[in-house]
Specification:
By secondary structure, the chain is of the alpha+beta class. Among the domains are: 339 residues, no CATH class; 121 residues, Nucleic acid-binding proteins (OB fold (Dihydrolipoamide Acetyltransferase, E2P)). 30% of the residues lie in helices and 23% in strands. The protein has 16 helices and 26 strands. The chain has a seven-stranded mixed β-sheet with strand order 4-11-10-7-6-5-12. Helix 1 runs antiparallel to helix 13 and helix 7 packs across helix 8. The protein is globular, with a radius of gyration of 27 Å.
Length: 684
């Protein structure tokens, strides 16, 4: 539990000064008292300080970031200039060597260090195509039940915050020997398909350990430029810099063909899943742009590109085929990932909101839902479809890891991806579930060859327990990532004058009506939050002839798809679902909890974007008309789409305990239930 000391209280221990975040342990709580008894544990940092707030997020999510121990590091391989790591002769004999036969390359975010996956595509002598997904062979370096394996199992995942990450594995693996960097030899586990040259139907599949040498470490934007035929980006790709013009041209043509062919294959794979009801859900992922001094320069929603979907489809295909393989070999102890169908009542708000725009959303199955969302497009406002997809996301059930011995086969289905079996195989650097799956796959290959199964596999009971632990840690990782993004959003706006700073005024879209206000989405910053139409003094919002808002005595009347504010003088203004309004963004400081973003409607008209921002904003938002939103992993993105629902007024927040789903917190939240976006409770 983390608390903040109050200025009128005298700390009982000297290390706990005012205005610091501290950890306390609750020892007892008398039934007749409003306050528990406890003792001080340690100071996390000053309130408002970045490192102190990050430490608080980690503690609240039970995330340990202690350095790897000496015993764990002693198990690690060595790779230094004086003693470089190299492929062993034994591994060279046992693995399929792809270094001279395959054009292998990666496509990742700019600056990515932990490169889990690479791709290859080539034409075979019979005219068919060969598609390869090559994943870092982490299990070669992490033996079962070793010190590092036990530590990775405990951490379960790499924790990604807005400005940093905390690795599941030491950097010698995560950023070096298990990272499939360009121009170096690496061990991989590969899934290679032979595809029909015209229909792209799968003819055969091969699984096994390989040796690869990635030719290019591309970033998404560069790959998209090459796909679009804009070859000026070549100057930003290091592998091309030292080539003569003839060699550069030949290699460029080879790479462009490969990216184009991968994209064609991915479109075909996606079309098949779409036919079965795969969902394209909405996610707003915010990138924090820091300056040289690590100060927050800007908050930028990540721009969707077609190559995102190309890579995602190849990874989904590999995960699906590995899931089938390990289940066939170990039907009662395979680790898969299920995504149950959501409860129909969770779609009620989505259906009502769509109805307000004249759209009908059929939620009887994933197929009918996907088709309905595809048809729910307002040609004059692309934001409408994004918000409807976001509401569909919030209605989803949780996707979870499970042991196949713990439930019937008909429960294996992944609703969002429209696949009968699915697992996680493609990110063993950052997910322990994938390490387990790699071991299962290697055991399945050994079983096929009728050789001894070397790896110790979990029993169904032990795997069930492990899945519960990993699911718990995944939720912590998603919560911490969401909290860190909100922290940076607050820090970005905290030092800005909301009345005079241009960046604090933005266009917002109303996406939900509540009793005393509305919920607003701000596309520019990916922010969702509540905007009150009645203030603490009981005054209601009024908009004059110039559309500017002010507070006056009056009343609010809520309807299904709109809310009307009427002053005692007879003036009225109505806000409808999906109306664009001008919003002022500020930060609401709290005595006891994290700061929160405060939204205030200052005009009932859309915000007129200044010329200086017009190009920047259009490049972020209007491109969503042209490119589909990426679905790298439907379930992994869902927590990021949850609406910010902390709308408890400051007067109440002072006396709450640590934020969490305790009975005390729930009772406090009832006070503002009128503005609580309850659909968030069901997000991932």
């Amino acid at each position: 539990m983390t608390v903040r000391t109050r200025p009128w209280e005298t700390p009982r221990v000297s290390p706990c000064p005012q205005d610091f975040r501290v950890v306390v342990r609750i020892d007892s709580w008398e039934a007749t008292s409003l306050y528990p008894n406890g003792h001080f544990v340690r100071v996390l940092g000053r309130i408002g300080d970045l490192e102190g707030e990050i430490a608080t997020i980690l503690v609240e999510n039970s995330i340990s970031v202690v350095p790897f121990s000496e015993a764990q590091m002693c198990e690690m391989p060595v790779n230094t200039p004086g003693n470089p790591w190299k492929v062993s002769p034994e591994e060279e004999r046992e693995r399929k060597d792809l270094r001279e036969t395959h054009l292998v390359f990666s496509i990742d975010p700019k600056g990515c260090e932990d490169v889990d996956d690479t791709l290859s595509v080539r034409t075979l002598t019979n005219g068919n195509l060969e598609l390869g997904v090559h994943i870092a062979d982490v299990t070669h370096f992490v033996p079962p039940n070793s010190y590092i394996d036990i530590e990775a199992r405990t951490r379960a995942t790499t924790y990604y915050l807005a400005d940093r990450r905390y690795d599941m594995l030491p950097s010698i693996l995560s950023a070096d020997l298990c990272s499939l960097l360009g121009g170096v030899d690496r061990y991989a586990v590969s899934v290679i398909w032979e595809l029909d040259k015209t229909s792209y139907e799968i003819k055969k599949v091969w699984y096994g350990r390989t040796i690869i040498r990635s030719a290019y470490k591309l970033f998404y934007e560069a790959a998209q430029e090459l796909l679009d035929g804009n070859f000026h980006i070549v100057d930003d790709i290091p592998e091309f810099r030292d080539l003569d013009e003839k060699s550069k041209q030949a290699k460029l043509e080879e790479l462009v063909w490969a990216i184009g062919k991968l994209t064609d294959i991915a479109r075909h794979i996606r079309a098949k899943r779409d036919h079965c009801g795969a969902l394209e859900l909405e996610g707003v992922e915010i990138r924090v742009q820091l300056d040289e001094k690590k100060n927050i320069h800007d908050l930028i929603p990540k721009q969707p590109l077609e190559v995102h979907e190309t890579v995602a489809e190849c990874m989904i295909l590999a995960n699906h085929w590995v899931a089938k393989k390990i289940w066939e070999s170990f039907p009662h102890q395979a680790l898969l990932r299920q995504h149950p169908p959501p409860h129909q009542e969770f779609f009620s708000e989505l259906r009502e909101c769509a109805k307000a725009k004249g759209f009908f959303i059929d939620t009887r199955s994933n197929k009918t839902l996907a088709d309905s969302l595809d048809n729910a497009n307002d040609p004059n406002d692309p934001i409408v479809n994004r918000l409807l997809r976001s509401m569909a996301t919030q209605a989803m059930s949780n996707a979870l890891y499970f042991s196949t011995g713990s439930c019937a086969e008909e429960e294996f289905h992944h609703y969002g991806l429209a696949l009968d079996k699915y697992t996680h195989f493609t990110s063993p650097i950052r997910r322990y579930s994938d390490i387990v799956v790699h071991r299962l796959l290697m055991a399945a290959i050994s079983k096929d060859k009728k050789t001894e199964i070397k790896d110790n596999l979990f029993s169904n009971k032990d795997l069930e327990e492990l899945c519960r632990h990993i699911n718990n840690r995944n939720r912590a990782a998603q919560h911490s990532q969401k909290q860190s993004t909100e922290l940076f959003q607050c820090m970005y706006f905290k030092d800005k004058d909301p009345d005079n700073e241009e960046r604090c005024i933005s266009d917002g879209v109303i996406y939900s009506i509540r009793t005393n206000g509305v919920l607003v989405f701000i596309p520019r910053f990916g922010i969702k939050g509540a905007a009150y139409l009645r203030n603490k003094d009981g005054l209601v919002i009024s908009c004059g002839s110039d559309s500017r808002s002010e507070w006056k005595p009056g009343s609010l009347q809520r309807f299904q798809n709109k809310i009307t504010s009427t002053t005692t003088g007879g003036e009225s203004v109505t806000f409808h679902l999906f109306d664009h309004v001008t919003v002022r963004i500020s930060v609401q400081a709290s005595r006891c909890h994290s700061d929160t973003i405060r939204l205030e409607i200052i005009s009932n008209k859309p915000y007129m974007i200044p010329d200086t921002e017009l190009f920047h904003q259009s490049s972020l938002l209007l491109k969503s008309d042209l490119v589909k939103e990426v679905t790298r992993s439907v379930e992994e993105a869902q927590l990021a789409q949850e609406v910010k629902v902390n709308v408890i007024q400051e007067d109440y927040q002072k006396y709450c305990q640590t934020k969490g789903r305790s009975l005390y917190t729930l009772l406090e939240e009832i006070r503002d239930l009128a503005l609580l976006d309850v659909s968030n409770s069901y997000g991932m």
